[in-house]
Q: What sequence folds into this?
């Protein structure tokens, strides 16, 4: 999902030139793209404006961490700003009130209210061990109450018996009374929707709210909602008073604009995501995860974070110098393997690179896993300094000793030596004419 937004943002990266600190010019160029991308992703104009302003201020003059490209740095800053707008913490449904706790679901027709009611009920019953009663207050749509009853049976949650002819407020009162009498912990109220926001709908919702005193009022909205998201969220928030938002159809190819707009405009947390039609297709909302998905840059953000923590600039410079000279001994290989481990192993590094996720299985079968890295480091650890600097002296007896020391077979030692040889050859090639001098000096 959010393909378009992520594509736009990734397009910015190639254009940045700044080094050291982000220049105003670079940031402005990037922010023009961010702005356009957000608008194309249907984020409301007012939200885009304040988001871009805030992010621009933060980005100008920001230091670029060594070993990270300026473009990657901007992505990190945009990401952090997105997380902030989306709300830092994931927030669960709040049941902290005297039982029965009423939860009211509001939203437009077809947004997924009834489905979401059943999903939430199932979750509260199974995971949180609550006794849940559901009631449909939708008397407009024929069979709406019956639909909820069917879903209730499906997920093993009770629904309020249907009494034809009652109005929504009467049903809400009856649900509350039944819950109180029969010892339910939670009452889930599914309400009627309309095709668009209108006064009669708002009036009905306000009446239900006054009768039911819900502890949570959740707006259920389709993630595909475009510019309407602001009006929708604003109206419900002002007239009914929201405590949170549930975004449905996050399994579709919505672009995330709705999440950003509704959160920014109401200040109310997005609490849950609907990710499919099945009854367990519901997830907690994690702002940072959504920001990652909006950016869609593999996980450049954590790459930057990890690089900032672990990469030692001096060491990187030393390695670059060696590469320039075309010298690469087993100590260097050891250092590189250690660096890989520090950054979360091959899986960690590869997972952070865009487009690699799909290749993971292939990579695993190519033996690039972390156990191999540990074993390789153990092999090098069992060598003397002299052996590490000049692997050519490694003959059968030394190899046997090393293998025993590392707890591996002699073949494993040979494999490592072969791999090192290939890498050293590559370094020599990259090092150009300097490489020969370096190697000669060493041999002589
Ligand atoms: P309501 O009118 O707001 O009560 O909407 P419904 O709960 O009846 O849902 C309308 C349609 O959307 C149904 O076909 C649901 O199966 C579907 N639906 C609801 N939530 C999701 C979701 O998270 N993902 C997908 N793909 N479909 C959903």
A:
């Amino acid at each position: 999902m959010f393909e378009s937004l992520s594509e736009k943002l990734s397009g910015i990266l190639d254009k940045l030139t700044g080094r050291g600190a982000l220049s105003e010019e670079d940031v402005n160029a990037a922010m023009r793209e961010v702005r356009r991308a957000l608008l194309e992703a249907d984020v409301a104009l007012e939200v885009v404006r304040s988001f871009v302003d805030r992010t621009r201020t933060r980005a100008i003059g920001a230091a670029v961490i060594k070993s990270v490209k300026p473009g990657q740095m901007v992505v990190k800053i945009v990401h952090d700003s997105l997380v902030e707008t989306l709300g830092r913490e994931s927030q669960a449904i709040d049941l902290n009130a005297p039982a029965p706790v009423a939860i009211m679901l509001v939203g437009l027709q077809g947004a997924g209210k009834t489905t979401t009611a059943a999903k939430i009920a199932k979750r509260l019953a199974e995971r949180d061990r609550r006794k849940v009663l559901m009631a449909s207050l939708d008397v407009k749509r024929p069979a709406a109450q019956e639909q909820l009853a069917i879903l209730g049976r499906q997920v093993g949650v009770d629904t309020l018996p249907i009494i034809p002819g009652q109005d929504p407020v009467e049903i809400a009162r009856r649900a509350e009374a039944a819950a109180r009498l029969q010892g339910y912990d939670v009452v889930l109220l599914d309400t009627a929707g309309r095709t668009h926001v209108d006064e009669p709908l708002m009036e009905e919702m306000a009446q239900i709210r006054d009768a039911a005193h819900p502890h949570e009022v959740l707006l259920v909205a389709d993630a595909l909602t475009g510019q309407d998201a602001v009006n929708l969220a604003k109206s419900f928030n002002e007239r009914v008073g929201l405590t949170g938002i549930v975004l449905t159809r996050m399994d579709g190819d919505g672009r995330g604009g709705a999440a950003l707009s509704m959160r920014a405009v109401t200040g109310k947390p997005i609490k849950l995501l609907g990710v499919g039609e099945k009854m367990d297709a519901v997830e907690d909302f994690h702002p940072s995860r959504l920001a990652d998905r909006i950016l869609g840059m593999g996980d450049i953000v954590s790459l930057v974070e990890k690089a900032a923590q672990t990469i030692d600039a001096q060491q990187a410079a030393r390695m670059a110098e060696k590469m320039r000279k075309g010298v690469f001994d087993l100590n260097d290989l050891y250092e590189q393997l250690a660096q890989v481990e520090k950054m979360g192993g091959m899986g960690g590094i590869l997972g952070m690179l865009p487009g690699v996720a799909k290749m993971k299985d292939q990579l695993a079968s190519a033996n690039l896993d972390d156990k191999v890295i540990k074993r390789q480091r153990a092999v090098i650890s069992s060598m003397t300094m002299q052996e590490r600097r000049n692997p050519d002296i490694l003959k059968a007896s030394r190899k046997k000793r090393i293998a025993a020391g590392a707890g591996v077979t002699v073949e494993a030692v040979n494999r490592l030596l072969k791999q090192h040889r290939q890498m050293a050859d590559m370094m020599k090639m990259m090092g150009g004419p300097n490489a020969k001098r370096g190697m000669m000096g060493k041999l002589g």
